[in-house]
Amino acid sequence: MTKQYGFYVDQQHCIGCFTCQIACKDKNDLADGVRWRRVHEFHGGDTILENDVYRSNVFAYWLSMACNHCENPKCAINCPTGAMYKREEDGIVLVDQDKCIGCGYCVWSCPYEVPQLSGNTVTKCNFCVDLQSQGKNPACVDACIMRVLEYGPIDELRQKYGDVAQVKGLPDASITKPSLVITPHRKAIE
Amino acid sequence: MGNVTEAKKGATVSRRSFLKWSAALAGSAALVGCMPVSSGGSAEPAVAQAGERHLNAEILPTICWHNCGGRCQIKGQVKDGVLLSITTDNEGPDTPDNLQARACLKGRAQRQRLYHPDRLKYPVKRVGERGEGKWERISWEEALDTTASELKRIIDQYGNESVHYIYASGVGGAFNQSYMGGPTGRLLNCLGGYLSFYGNYSQANYMYAIPYMFGSPYGGSSPTTFPDAKLIVMFGDNPACTRVGGLNSTYYLKLAKQNGVKIIVIDPRFSDTASTFADQWIPIRPTTDSALVAALAYIMLTEGLHDQAFLDKYCVGFDDAHLPEGVPAGNSYKSYVMGDSDGQPKTPEWASSITGIPVDTIKQLAREIAGVKPVFFIQGRGMQRHANGEFQALSVPILAFMTGNVGILGSNPGLYEGFTPVRMGSYPAGANPVEAKISFFMFTDAIEKGGNHTKESSGLQGADRLPHGIKFIWNYGGNALVNQHSDTGRTTALLKDTSKCEFILGIDNFMTPSMEYSDIILPDITQFEQEDIVTRALGQGLALYGRKLVEPMYECKGVYEICLELAKRLGVQDKFDEGKTQEQYLREAVAVAQEAQPDFPSFEEFREKGIYKTKPSKIVAYEAFIKDPIANPLPTPSGKIEIFSKTLYDMNRPDEIPAVPKYIEVKEGPRSPLREKYPLQCIGHHSKRRVHSTFDNLPWMEEAEPQRLWMNPQDAAARGIKDGDLVKVYNDRGTVKVKVKITPRLIPGVCSLPQGAWYTPDANGVDIRGCINTLTTWEPTKLAWGNPQHTNLVQVEKA
Amino acid sequence: MKDLPLILFTLCMQAAIGAVLWAALIRLKDKEAPAFKTNTLVALILSAVGILASLVHLGKPLLAMTSLFNLFSSWLSREILFSGGFFVLLAISWWLERSEKAESARNTLAWLASLVGLVAVFAMGQLYMQTVIPAWQSANTLVDFYATTLILGAVVLFVTAGKEREKLPRLDLAVLAIVFVQIAFVPGYLTGMAAMAGAGQESAALLAGSYGLMTILRWLFMLGGIFLFVLSRTDKFAKQAGILYTAVGILLIGAFIGRFLLYVSGIPIGIGII
Ligand SMILES: Nc1nc2c(c(=O)[nH]1)N[C@H]1C(S)=C(S)[C@@H](COP(=O)(O)OP(=O)(O)OC[C@H]3O[C@@H](n4cnc5c(=O)[nH]c(N)nc54)[C@H](O)[C@@H]3O)O[C@H]1N2
Ligand SMILES: Nc1nc2c(c(=O)[nH]1)N[C@H]1C(S)=C(S)[C@@H](COP(=O)(O)OP(=O)(O)OC[C@H]3O[C@@H](n4cnc5c(=O)[nH]c(N)nc54)[C@H](O)[C@@H]3O)O[C@H]1N2
Ligand code: SF4
Ligand code: SF4
Ligand code: SF4
Ligand code: SF4
Ligand code: SF4
Ligand SMILES: [Mo]
């Protein structure tokens, strides 16, 4: 493989505004219930009233996630038809809608809840390859009002931002080796 | 520390709305002729499938114009007369000193609003009882004729002050304007004027009270100076939801954080602002901020941490030595804090029992804010939307005075952010000959009381009495007639009585709960079906031009055309109509801008690019006054900061309207006896998925953040309520049925029902959508006649 | 019940494979054993039903054949290949049986079909084990699938044997042993999952909680069914087909519940539940 493209998210400054999610839905004309990029809310800790005063160790943070175009894409490995495939030139994982038979096996194979049945096939983030081929950024990246989303060759992103791909609330990165770099929210790492 | 869990949303977009939206999609697809997916010869199929529907689409700049605290550029990708999707400002390098005006999720979802299958499509008239929901389609002719004749009849019969152009914030263009001015204002002015209002739902208590202290309600430091602070202390402010657009405050909080600024958020909720930015969250019971401030003052005073020189030089009435002449000792803020006047020193223990904040935290906070400089004190509007809101608002600045945090870069005296607006002309509404003004919040009172709505009883300004109350309501671009006003049950009951308010005209894009109470509804076009200009952003100056993206849909018509047609029918066409087109008015508005800003582009260029930005400037609140208080006095009676206000003192209602910002216990507060029956304080925060009630009906928004009552696990456990359960929230005013979000992100004893959901009563009058105003009260605040909509006691149980 | 097609597919295929396998085994030992023609036919019908049911689960049933395209890495492709192969071999062998031709080829085919079937069951197991669903990842899936194959296979064989069933060996005892093996794996399976954080734990909690009663019922049905099955083989009841049918009915319900539980307890590791 020549290159592997991936996403970067600065989770520290993500306000969970859902703008990326909606921009993606609008660009890709996605039906209700289908979200190629999803903003996840996590929270933990407690806020309690004790002896008439409040005590809290609550935390909350967000994670905006699309397909991670994994190095070891279980979705594509398990896909029986080859509809889900990984592109040689940039490692982007795509679904050929004509080939997909909607068996749903990729849904069971992705730890990130990425492939979603919609109609009679599965769809997911295609990294806006159409925009990329026109030299433009993916819709979600350009939408983020906090400027916490970036994309590019994953080795470059890792060089710039390190190689964290797993924070509290995410599955073990060794399962699929996601092409994702996260600058974690202070509460998302121990 | 508990486990981390994802807050599962239980994505519950109703089937009904799903069907509706898929129909809309099919509709827009049909319009484009099926949006052919060309596989482009040998192109890789999956790539071709990636959505080349945008190829060769025309990209036109347009605007988002609702009342969200900002304005953003959105761009329409239009092909064959159909809006395919929306992008945003993506010009330029997007550096911190030249940011793109990126739109938020709502702006990005505007296509779903434009093509919503529930758009109002043609004029209708009420055929059943008012509010019964029975409508008949009529022609524009008939709609305009009836409206004109009713307007004329009511003006003839009851006079112009019986015609109310009600508060409405849905349309904010230079040409189309729903907030007082615009073509509506001009038409009504041509007819002899109308009953206007003072104050507003956003900040009534703040804007009424702050001038007693500063002489003016505005003038905070700009968010561009967040990074210059050492510490930012936010009271009841949640910019991460309420000021999000690309050039707005939230982004500057990120810059501040990157600069190492510490951030403390004081809020009953662990808001998105708190979770993302706060180094410390101090949870507080709603309505008790003044008590916290008093205790902070107490610590600073007893530990000698305060800046006495600043107080002596710039302020009136901090201590007894600096009271205005003739005011006896014991009336200063310090004597209140030390308990000289009422025997109760405002110790941290005292404040702790009121606010729920641990004593140690109060002490630590006092020492911290007195220990660094500059401190940017800021308050949101939420903390003043309370029954004691005026004094909540007035208390925050005290901290800045006591620590000398005024007039220096990186400081802010607890005021809303200042900003440099782009000067822009607007449609000439003319002058209103009617001087009487009601409080925006008292329109129901003016309907109900008829001729008994007076200065004393109801805060009327400009006249002693309204002779007949309100008989005609013009409701354009607003949902405050029912949904956004308090006590929907009581309001709708009042509106049902057609002998009180005799005619209600509604102009909107949707059949909102307020539109349901119209007699005639006229379907308006959106900003995407016409051209207009908006300005406003807090970071950089911003002006946006909105191009027409699509032809007016259905039979919809713009408000100018409506007003012009009515003017013709009412014999004031010559006064109303200057013979100009919409474009001419917009050109005139731009001419004003060009005059004020020499680098403002030509109309053509502005229309082409759709955006004009100024470089960010750093505004420091009251800098000139601090540099030279003699040469630059404040517009207060003393020319100084009036911690003690003689004007308030002279009102002689010290328990309700103190002359210094005391903590006032509210009727539905944390220590109210009513808590036996209704133990929870219910607030209704502004959520990111709506602008008030606008966008409530979009499936994409419901999917992002479904309407839920926020509740603490402790309260939920005590009631046997689980996450996602349907619950009943009720008090004497009404009942809401809504699903619950159990979260440690707010304190026990408090729940929050995000404001703006559409009031949807079932057969028993129970609201099944979750409109907070089903639970709120008409009773206005004491000084401002403002809205106390965050002050509510309720009980919650499993439905 | 959205998983019904898959429940039917796995149960029918496994039953068919088991039936054919038992028949082959018996014939291996006893050349004089009955011809088991009905058994072959029923197995054929069952696998047809299973395959049809699996099509219902697809978004595009007409393209089902394309699911063979990724044998290189997909266990689903392999499952389809071997399930389909089993069906084809079985069909041929049924045709040969019916025409009473080529005795030796028939035997070889029956064996081939059985072997391919066993591989199909293995592929099925692997398919589930390769997901990100902890409840399916454990070896228990394979144990469960093979056990079901043998249990339901025996049941089919007995029912289709008609009067000849008395000549059949005591498969009931074998089945009893198999159920015990199956049950022996359960505590380890459950505690293993319960020890995992996140999805595994949630699955275990489901099986012990909301579906606790069903979990218990499942094993009661299995044991009860086996008990009756064994009883039906005792001299006293050997003539009463009613007992056998009751036993079969109860076993089927048990197996069905078991499969149902497998699907509903299948919680993927995902965001927030790890
Ligand atoms: N309980 C409680 N109540 C509150 C608040 C609270 O915090 N708690 N907040 C208050 C505040 S701060 C405010 S500002 C008010 C806001 O109250 P409103 O000014 O009523 O704001 P919206 O609810 O957004 O209603 C705007 C209306 O304009 C319509 N609209 C949008 N675009 C167009 C257009 O192009 N043409 C026409 N004709 N109509 C259009 C929308 O459909 C919508 O019905 O609510 C107040 N109400
Ligand atoms: N997305 C979005 N943005 C908006 C709007 C919208 O509807 N949606 N509306 C716009 C308009 S018109 C306005 S006026 C503003 C409104 O902005 P605000 O009025 O500031 O918003 P709220 O959510 O009502 O309140 C802000 C915070 O105050 C907290 N709070 C409530 N009561 C108290 C209290 O007694 N003490 C303290 N310390 N905190 C308290 C709430 O929990 C909340 O987190 O937002 C603007 N921006
Ligand atoms: S995130 Fe999921 S769908 Fe995307 S490549 Fe990885 S495994 Fe496949
Ligand atoms: S649903 Fe489509 S993409 Fe997913 S595994 Fe099946 S055939 Fe492949
Ligand atoms: S890259 Fe494109 S398809 Fe993928 S999440 Fe972003 S906007 Fe959606
Ligand atoms: S747009 Fe940016 S800040 Fe908003 S949710 Fe997405 S990633 Fe987070
Ligand atoms: S921030 Fe306000 S103006 Fe900007 S897109 Fe969102 S709703 Fe529209
Ligand atoms: Mo507001």
How do the helices and strands line up, and which of them pair or pack?
The complex is a heterotrimer of chains A (190), B (799) and C (274).
Chain A: E1 5-10, H1 19-28, E2 38-44, E3 47-50, E4 53-56, E5 59-65, H2 74-78, E6 84-86, E7 93-95, H3 105-109, E8 116-118, E9 121-123, H4 129-133, H5 139-143, E10 149-153, H6 154-161, E11 180-183
Parallel strand pairs in A: 1-11
Antiparallel strand pairs in A: 1-10, 2-5, 3-4, 6-7, 8-9
Chain B: E1 5-6, H1 15-31, H2 45-48, E2 58-64, E3 72-79, E4 82-88, H3 105-108, H4 110-114, E5 124-126, E6 135-137, H5 140-158, E7 163-165, H6 182-190, E8 196-198, H7 204-214, E9 231-235, H8 239-242, H9 249-258, E10 262-266, H10 272-277, E11 280-282, H11 289-302, H12 308-314, E12 315-316, H13 333-338, H14 348-355, H15 359-371, E13 375-379, H16 389-402, E14 412-413, E15 437-439, H17 443-448, H18 455-458, E16 472-476, H19 488-496, E17 503-508, E18 520-523, E19 532-535, E20 542-546, H20 559-569, H21 573-576, H22 582-596, H23 603-609, E21 611-613, H24 623-627, E22 641-642, H25 646-651, E23 680-683, H26 699-704, E24 709-711, H27 713-718, E25 726-731, E26 734-742, E27 750-752, E28 793-798
Parallel strand pairs in B: 7-16, 8-15, 9-10, 9-13, 10-11, 12-22, 13-14, 16-17, 17-18, 23-27, 24-26
Antiparallel strand pairs in B: 2-3, 3-4, 5-6, 5-18, 19-20, 20-21, 23-28, 24-27, 25-26, 25-28
Helix pairs in contact in B: 5-20, 6-20, 7-16, 11-14, 11-15, 11-16, 14-15
Chain C: H1 4-29, H2 37-56, H3 75-98, H4 103-129, H5 134-137, H6 140-161, H7 171-195, H8 199-208, H9 212-233, H10 241-264
